[in-house]
Amino acid sequence: MQYRNPVIPGFFPDPSICRVGDTFYLVASSFQFFPGVPLFESKDLLNWTQIGHVLTHESQLPLQKANSVGGIYAPTIRHDNGRFYMVTTNVSEGGNFYVWTDDIHGEWSEPVFVAQDGIDPSLYFEDGKAYFMSNGTDDAGVHGIVQCEIDIATGQKLSSAKCIWQGTGGRFLESPHLYKIGKYYYLMASEGGTEYGHMVVYARSTSLYGPFESYPQNPVLTNRNLGGYLLQGCGHADLVEDVQGNWWMVHLGFRQIDQWVMHHVTGREVYLAPVTFDENGWFTAGVDGTNRLTVETDRLPDIVQKPLQELTFANTSPCREWIYMNNPKPENYEFTPDAFRLRSNGSSLSDPMNAPTFLGIRQQEMQMTLAVTLDSRAQEAGVTCYMTPEQHYEIVVRKTMDGTEVFVRKTVGDLCVEMDAVHPEEGAVRLIVEVEPFTYKFLVEQNGQRLELGAGQSKYLSTEVAGNFTGVLFGLFAQGEVNGKFAEFSDFSLKSNA
Ligand code: 6LW
After folding, report:
1. Are the beta carbons of 7 and 243 closer than 8 angstroms?
2. Which of 35, 193, 356, 452 could, after both became Cys, cross-link 347 (CB 3.0–4.6 A)?
């Protein structure tokens, strides 16, 4: 059979996976968005259901100081002795911490902090002991993958941190994970940076603290030499064994908007690659050390991979598919079964720190249609294609002295353009975004009449332009004067045309 990659499309970077019984669990980074650390489950590695988020309370996730490259970086999920742990870094406040739960569908604990620097923390459990590692600096001042034993109840360090590996010489050694498989400890990491040079590397040892011997054929997985292939940036991986005893790797990668156009807007997504051990205890991954958009395998017989379904307000919910920017002020949001109501808190989409009233849902494909009905009393409300405070396009419905105007505003860096406005009658309008690989087209509809408002080139919203770690979100927003008046969004639809 063949399976399709990505297995989870859209901005879900830095995947980490574990299996408990016959169920796989996966988490991803969330940066400045709230709630934090999306959590998925799957029975078959191909079809994933988002069951919520790990960090759902402000006490677990203070984001007041998080800008568009701040907040929550690379999480790791592990299970030990009946308990799930998720360890991560809030780079804007607090550093490395973990939370735990005994009920994966329930609430997680308050944060337990670990006084060890570095990002991309991971946990390894053995014989009742817990080990913490990160890509940081050890207690002797040596930089690399550093490891210490911790008290898992308190987060206290029980040993000094020791650098156990410095990688193979590529830049940005990151995302370490340790596994014991057979007689070896395997230490897997990434190098090359999370762009086009990204790669997965590993080393092994018979001891937990090394010395580690590098896999002679490193990198074990990279698409860096696949010029002109849509899937790029493969790295930041985690391993899991399925019930049948097959090994798999989940890793991040991204899809360019076109074969020869090195821009991507859908963020870093989740990819799956088969892993095979040889008789000497080394493993290979993917298709000749690369990963592909379709992968041939006989390991997943009879599994039907479901396509993306149309998303509506009925089958999505706030705090699951819909996420806020930074810590939201609940009084500015109202929800009914049919509508989301938003009112301005005075900040705007271009405000670098102060989060506007906003609910966003990920762009998961490069060909999509979004439509929503907006009945607004707010000074400004609408639908945005949002990457960062400096990169966003939106349809704005603005109230003026003379009534309502609808227009497209495009912000790219310090350039801001407002296109020609149309003037609908009072009452609701339907806003439509036609998403294509190279463009976002914006339309407005009222009384059966559809008007084109303009278009924006997708590449200016890309990660290559924005220089960030996320992907485009389609956001519903209200901004401008704080007048207590709501903008009501209803009849939402987002569907893939891919
Ligand atoms: C993350 C690092 C990375 O901490 O990107 O691709 C950083 N890898 O491991 C942010 O997602």
Report:
1. no
2. 356
